[in-house]
């Protein structure tokens, strides 16, 4: 049992060199630390703080995790006799009890039609994995800008997480998923949705893309259109966490208008050399700096498009691009200088590359929505906690009607996006790929536009609620600052918002019956 002190005993230690304070029933000896305190010595010597219970002052200025750091835990010398700890951090893997911090299917008292028992078990195990294995590496790599550590990929591979990240399908056959919690034949788009929403809990946007953003979009064309032997070899290497893919479509010359690509692929057929010569550049390619395989869109001599699987080799140069998120994503500029690509590395048919590129767009955009809505929800939780603990004019911040109005809008946005997302996910579970393309392409595009545009409104509101802290990289508002800075990525990747909104409406117009009038 830790040493017990009375309030009076603590009160006697209230000066420089002999300074104790109480935070949530624990007594901290700050005598030596006070001079190094990042908030300064003076604030600790304040007569309301020195030798007193400073719980409220502490939590209005620091995140809870400050107290959990080993160097600060060591400052605890005992507890106040008869007092009990009242503030607890969420255990790794546990659900949050903050209202709206979890989707309704994970909220006490709610019912839902979509998720089964194996989804719940999967969610609990996956969150624990994210918080225990990924979060520590994510925060460190986001800081130093290096790619996610190899041990994280290794741990993911052991549970077949990289394979599951590619969604349901025959590639999961025979694999033990998440230690056997879910059977390959049970694995559906709701499991994948859970993965998308749990992974963003690391709140390190660049790192998340580093963790498999390139593979998520670069591997499907290989799996769906590659030669059997080749796709099996590559899928195995990638699922084992040993190799990485990236999708190299976008260029400085062409973004959403893939028809305008300038990278060229010329056929060469002279005896042993039967293949393509690839020349050109690609820009903003996620994971490019460390990818082993590039799924490249290029223009043929006939003016059509071809998609090629290109292995890293001489003639390929990748250099990092500085974006507003961290270099952990490995975002790069690629130069292909007369690179030879064997003919068997052609994905799909020559001059029919557009179909290959477009074929994965729905799944890719839907996946981006899962992540976008998941991180939007974390921001709602951050804001609810902050307005509850922050005091202004002697009252909690939520006492201001304007603040409550902002929170109301945030909750409505995230709940509507989640409900729409779950509905479309249910449709995906009950449609084959062709049906998804036929019925869902427009809705998914509209949902992505909705999710990312509401995310940006929520990011802006969150900054207003956090004030200066919302634009500061450390301290109470650090996740708000990060989110506000990186939220445009979601709105640009997979198609800019306006393009997607337009696509959704064009699809609807295409399906307008000829025989209807007002
Ligand atoms: C166990 C006791 C304490 C520890 C370990 C501690 C530690 C820290 C740390 C690590 C920071 C910088 C990180 C961050 O921005 O969150 C900080 C900042 C600060 N601390 Fe403390 N602190 C303690 C108690 C207090 C108390 C009782 C006050 C009372 C007024 C206080 C006032 C501040 C202020 C004003 C800042 C600067 C906040 C800002 O820049 O927004 N600290 N403290």
Q: Spell out the CATH superfamily of the largest domain.
A: Butyryl-CoA Dehydrogenase, subunit A, domain 3
Ligand list:
protoporphyrin IX containing FE
* CATH class membership of the largest domain: Mainly Alpha
Principal-axis shape equals elongated
Number of helices: 18
Q: Radius of gyration in whole Å, from Cα? A: 26 Å
Number of E strands: 15
Question: Nutshell version of this structure?
Answer:
This protein is 45% helix and 15% strand. With 518 residues, the chain is of the alpha+beta class. The protein has 4 domains: 4-80, Flavocytochrome B2, Chain A, domain 1 (Roll); 106-211, Butyryl-Coa Dehydrogenase, subunit A, domain 1, CATH 1.10.540; 245-357, Butyryl-CoA Dehydrogenase, subunit A, domain 2, CATH 2.40.110.10; 360-510, Up-down Bundle (Butyryl-CoA Dehydrogenase, subunit A, domain 3).
Task: Please characterize this protein's 3D structure.
By secondary structure, the chain is an alpha+beta fold. The chain folds into four domains: 4-80, Cytochrome b5-like heme/steroid binding domain (Flavocytochrome B2, Chain A, domain 1, Roll), CATH 3.10.120; 106-211, Orthogonal Bundle (Butyryl-Coa Dehydrogenase, subunit A, domain 1), CATH 1.10.540; 245-357, Butyryl-CoA Dehydrogenase, subunit A, domain 2; 360-510, Butyryl-CoA Dehydrogenase, subunit A, domain 3, CATH 1.20.140.10. The protein has helices spanning 7-11, 42-45, 55-59, 65-68, 70-73, 117-144, 150-158, 161-164, 189-199, 205-210, 213-225, 228-239, 353-359, 361-389, 401-429, 433-466, 478-492, 497-510; strands at 4-5, 14-15, 18-23, 26-29, 76-80, 245-248, 264-270, 273-285, 293-299, 305-311, 316-320, 332-342, 346-347, 391-392, 395-396. It has a five-stranded mixed beta sheet. Strands 6-9-10-13 form a four-stranded mixed beta sheet. The protein has a four-stranded antiparallel beta sheet with strand order 7-8-12-11, with no helix packed on it. A hairpin with a 2-residue loop joins strand 7 (264-270) and strand 8 (273-285). The protein starts with a strand and ends in an 8-residue tail after the last helix. The mean pLDDT is 96. The structure holds protoporphyrin IX containing FE (HEM). Protoporphyrin IX containing FE binds at residues 21, 23, 28, 30, 37-39, 43-44, 49, 54, 57-58, 61-63, 66, 72, 75, 474-475. Protoporphyrin IX containing FE (HEM) binds next to strand 3, helix 2 and helix 3.
């Amino acid at each position: 049992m830790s040493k017990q002190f009375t309030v009076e005993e603590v009160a006697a230690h209230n000066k420089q060199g002999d300074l104790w304070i109480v935070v949530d029933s624990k007594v901290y000896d700050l005598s030596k630390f006070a001079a190094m305190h990042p908030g300064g010595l003076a604030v600790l010597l304040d007569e309301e703080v020195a030798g007193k219970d400073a719980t409220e002052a502490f939590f209005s200025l620091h995140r809870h995790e400050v107290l959990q750091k080993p160097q600060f835990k060591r400052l605890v010398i005992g507890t106040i006799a008869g007092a009990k700890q009242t503030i607890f951090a969420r255990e790794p893997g546990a659900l949050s009890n903050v209202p709206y911090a979890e989707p309704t299917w994970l909220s006490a008292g709610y019912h839902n039609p979509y998720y089964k028992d194996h989804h719940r078990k999967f969610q609990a195990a996956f969150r624990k994995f994210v918080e225990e294995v990924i979060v520590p590496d994510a925060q460190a790599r986001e800081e130093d800008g290096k790619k996610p550590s190899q041990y994280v990929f290794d741990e993911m591979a052991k549970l077949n997480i990289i394979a599951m990240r590619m969604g349901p399908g025959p590639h999961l056959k025979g694999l033990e998923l998440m230690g056997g919690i879910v059977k390959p034949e049970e694995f559906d788009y709701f499991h994948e949705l859970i993965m998308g929403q749990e992974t963003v809990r690391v709140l390190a946007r660049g790192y998340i893309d580093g963790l498999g953003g390139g593979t998520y979009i670069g591997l499907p064309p290989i799996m769906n259109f590659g030669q059997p032997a080749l796709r099996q070899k590559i899928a195995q290497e990638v699922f084992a966490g040993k190799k990485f893919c990236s999708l190299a479509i976008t260029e400085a010359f062409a973004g959403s208008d893939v028809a305008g690509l300038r990278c060229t692929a010329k056929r060469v057929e002279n005896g042993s050399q039967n293949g393509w010569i690839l020349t050109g550049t690609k820009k903003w390619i996620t994971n490019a700096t460390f990818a082993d395989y590039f799924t490249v869109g290029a223009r043929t001599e006939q003016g059509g498009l071809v998609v090629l699987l290109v292995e890293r080799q001489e003639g390929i140069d990748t250099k990092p691009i500085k974006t507003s998120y961290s270099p952990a994503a490995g975002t790069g500029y690629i130069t292909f200088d007369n690179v030879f690509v064997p003919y068997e590395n052609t994905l799909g048919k020559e001059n029919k590359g557009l179909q290959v590129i477009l074929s994965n767009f729905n799944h890719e955009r839907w996946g981006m929505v899962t992540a976008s809505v998941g991180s939007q929800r974390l921001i709602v939780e951050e804001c609810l906690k902050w307005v509850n603990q922050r005091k202004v004019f002697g009252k909690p911040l939520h006492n201001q009607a304007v603040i409550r109005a902002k929170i109301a809008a945030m909750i409505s946005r995230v709940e509507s996006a989640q409900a729409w997302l779950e509905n479309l996910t249910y449709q995906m579970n009950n449609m084959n790929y062709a049906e998804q393309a036929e019925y869902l392409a427009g809705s998914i595009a509209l949902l992505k536009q909705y999710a990312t545009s509401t995310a940006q409104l929520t990011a802006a509101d969150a900054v207003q609620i956090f004030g200066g802290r919302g634009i500061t990289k450390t301290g109470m508002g650090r996740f708000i600052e990060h989110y506000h800075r990186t939220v445009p990525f979601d709105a640009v990747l997979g198609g800019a918002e306006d393009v997607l909104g337009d696509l959704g409406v064009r699809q609807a117009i295409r399906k307008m019956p000829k025989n209807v009038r007002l």
